[in-house]
Amino acid sequence: MKRKKTVNFPSYDVVVIGGGIIGTFILYELSHLPLKILLLEKEEDLAFGVSKANSGIIHAGFHEDPKTLKGHYCAKGNALYSKISKKLQLPFKRVGELLVIKEEREYSALHEFMKKGEQNKVTGLKIIDGIELHRLEPHLSEQLVGALYAPSAGVINPYELIYTLARFARCNGATLLRGEEVIAITKDNSFHIYTSKGRYHSKVVINAAGMNGDTIAAMMGVATPAIEGRKGQEYLLDKKHKGLVKHIIFPLPTPESKGTLIIPTLDGPIMLGPTAENMQAKDREDLSTDQCGYQEIMERVKFMLPAINERAIIAGFSGMRPIPREHHDFIIGNTSVAGFFQAIGMHSPGLTAAPAIAMDVAKMVSNYLSESKLIQKQKRCSKDYQQKEHHCLCHTPKKLREVKKFSELQKLWKSDPEYGEVVCRCEEVSLAEIRAAIRDGATTLDGVKFRTRMGMGRCQGAFCTYRAIEVMASELAVPHHKISKKGKKSTIIVATLGKDHE
Amino acid sequence: MNFICIVCPKSCPIDVLLDEENKIKSISGANCKNGLRYATQELSFPSRVFTSIVKLTGGQIAMCPVKSDQAVPRELILKMSRSLCQLSIAAPVKIGDIVVENILGTKANIVVTRNIDKCKQQTKTAKIPR
Amino acid sequence: MSKKAQLLKRQAHKGHVSIIGAGPAGLIAALHIKKNAPSTKVTVIDREIFVGGILNQCIHPGFGLLEFGQELTGPEYAAKVSALCRDFEIEFLTETSVLSINKKLEVVALSPKYGAKKFQSKAIVLCTGCRERSRGALHIPGDRPSGIMTAGLAQKFINIDGLVPGSRVAILGSGDIGAIMARRLTLQGVEVAAVIEIKKSLSARPRNVIQCIVDFQIPIYLEHTITKIVGRERLEKIKVAKILSDGRADFSTEFEISCDTLLLSVGLIPENELAEMAGVALDAKSNGVIVDEKFMSSIPGIFACGNAMKIYDLVDHLSEDSKKAGESVAAYLTAPLVEGKQV
Hints:
The structure holds three protein chains of three kinds. Chain B has helices spanning about 35-45, 75-85; strands at about 1-5, 15-20, 25-30, 45-50, 50-55, 65-70, 70-75, 90, 100, 110. Chain B is α+β, with helices and mostly antiparallel strands. Chain B has two domains: about 1-45, no CATH class; about 50-110, CPE0013-like fold. Chain B has a five-stranded mixed beta sheet with strand order 8-5-6-10-9. In chain B, strands 1-2-3 form a three-stranded antiparallel beta sheet, with helices on one face.
């Protein structure tokens, strides 16, 4: 009887709520199974929530308590990144982490972290003295006397990871819907998901809703700790200061966070931060920066790296870590409601752990579906998706800034003359890449920015925004004033005087 | 009364002395006769060169820059700008082309200040504005 | 090879100058190189479709009084200078981005029209202009909504494409571009709620202060700064406070100005990424190319003029210097060879 009533609504095997790192990773894993899957994201684009401000570190895993899920998944996830990055052809660099100390007596702390790391199966850990430390990082302060060196740590571009995972999942048949906020979920013999735009059925629901993980859990009546925000401000240095440090530099951690870091990001600019500011529940969307945070970061990083020039800062922003109240660990797996799974409270080292968690969650879901006879057990259709993914890889747009040889430049231009138009001069992003980003689903300026790095450089969009809006308006066939920074009311211009841009 | 001359970038400070009937007794500070003229004008009838844009159809760009070919009364500038909003001209246009004659009865004409060709599909050759 | 033979070879080989940037500095340098060294091949490279650089969006008057003896608007000035260029055989490569230069004076450029090009030049003249300080560089605290942009970007939006950036605007900084945009927006029916300046006086030239700000009774806040940006999607308001004598904000004086747009007009930085790539010495403070009296940089054969060298107030002054730069490039190119080197 129910079936008849709801037959008009699209029906799926699995619905993933949340298009951040963990949601898209789970979707990607599930897309290798013969399932009909859907991802719902409330923002205008993927990676617009918690993941937006991710610093891109793939942690070694010595920070985490071995008894926690963080400890269990971190080193495991770290190891998986070699394979994943190769498969998705994503740049990933194992630059190594250095946990630095400023006093001899702090060596004992390093030994403790080393022990934790070994329990977590972190490889290559080594305690080094000041001489070795300064040989590795000559610009670090003379006051630093030693470090724990973890060569397995790395950096990746988190946006690139998310959009690539999404692209692969899509080519394997997954559906991704953005700008759809889940408003309610009910369950009888299946789940009914009501969103701001529609209604869907599913046999399984996975809650990967980041900051809103507790809200989604509450819809299902699942008891979950409240998700609290812990804000982190970050500041970026002009990429010409690239090379100031080669490793990710950590101070000894605080109870709140891993401390204020110096991060040589994958794409060049050095990132300074984050702060760790506990927010009230109502303020968990407050991503403002302030002078206090700025000063705190500068003071701390300058202690480790006195050569930092504040004039070289090109941007500042904040991110929010979702921390389950009084839990301080990830919340992963099945719940009191059969078929409702969770991967929430994904704070650091969430990005690192994501591939390992996604594999586990996909396995849990698949087992649940076959055990409860909701689907017939089928083998992975590996040949089919391998072919599709190969096709997907072949269509990955090239990046102008990565082409160094003259002959290759000419070849690139011949493949598409739009590679010849440099739209973003600071980050050397061509028109071809911008068009590819729009065709990949970018509908906003930030969507293009996160996919291509357009506007992330020293002029912060002063030169490229003009052309980008023009291209977006024509490619998306909307008037200029409909183009926004990040969706909703975030328009760039408000009216058009001139010709109609339809 | 004190003015800063806006005729040229030198920005001379001009001092104007008035008599009891508000007539100019003396002007000092101006380094050229344009400055003198400016000060006299500013006292009686402040005027400015007006620049704005008008819609352009079929051109390489969407808007055409224009100016008044002589200074116009300051208080008419906003009104002038509003009246240009309604206007649309067609490419090609050349510097000096008259867009509006004797605008708002000021005797000033609104003229084009940029050479703009008709829009071609793809610009193949280098362009130097004529 | 004898010195004479070398000299002959050199004269036969005309020599090639790459000028990067077709704004006023580039055009005028090109003109005067060609005037003084007619056999030199001069190539002017610019990323835009049109030559004239930033002048094309500066539709206000105030240009050319010193140089041409008449008051011109930006596009008129550009047209006059490029008309002068047409009397000479100068190659223009528009819609072409220079990707790199090096100390061997090689230039790599890229264009959607003809792909990659490489030039071996005898001299390079950097006329790459400047960029505006961004919010990030100023680190103004607060949210990161849309509606915050540099005054120059807003100028381009409105003057070239007729795109209106907002309905109620505040302007931080009172430089000339900021003042001119205050008038431009007012004329276009946009409300300008405030001009906020950290210094004791407005930094625009007096004629712009009068014609652009005072004439339209735009509220001015001197010795004030923005303490917070508020708005999660589009800008909603800014918090403003007086500054103390040490430059910090006095939060007890904080008040709000509601606006949906904030324009930044807080200074210009010479755009010298190409120069840096070649290893040209830059001034640590201004980021301008350090040049000698002949406008030559620290690398022989690489010259610089215009805003890439130092920020000018007036295009007329810039043109005057660019003329001198062009002449000295010409002298450099035509100087006889002594032991394989130019004197």
